[in-house]
Amino acid sequence: MAAVKIALEILFIIVCIALTVIILMQEGKSAGLGAIAGAADTYWGKNKGRSMEGMLVKLTRVLVVLFIVISAVLNIGSFH
Questions:
Q1: Cα gap 8→74, rounded to integer Å
Q2: Distance CA 71, CA 76 (A)
Q3: Phi, psi of 76 (to 5 degrees)
């Protein structure tokens, strides 16, 4: 059981570091003057899900779910 806990802790640390890096790689949500001029209707605005930014958002969601699940499992395991 101790080996599983150690493996989860190592995975948790990797997820935390990856989540931090991916969040810092993302662009801000404020579009600035581009939103006033209607730049959100461009090709990149419509196909954002297939761009690098869209991939980072999806990866962030996956890592957040992993973060929550692993932290809950580690917390439940600490009561024994």
A1: 7
A2: 9
A3: -65, -40
CA distances, 48 to each of 2, 37, 44, 51 (Å): 43, 18, 6, 5
Contact 17, 75 (CB under 8 A): no
Output the pTM of the full model: 0.72
Task: Please tell me the number of Cα atoms within 13 Å of 71 on its side-chain side.
Answer: 10
Helix residue ranges per DSSP H, 1-51: 2-25, 33-37, 43-46
Measure the CA–CA gap between 11 and 67, rounded to whole angstroms. 9
Burial class (CB in 10 A: 0-12, 13-18, 19+), 59: middle
pLDDT tens digits along 57-71: 999 999 999 999 999
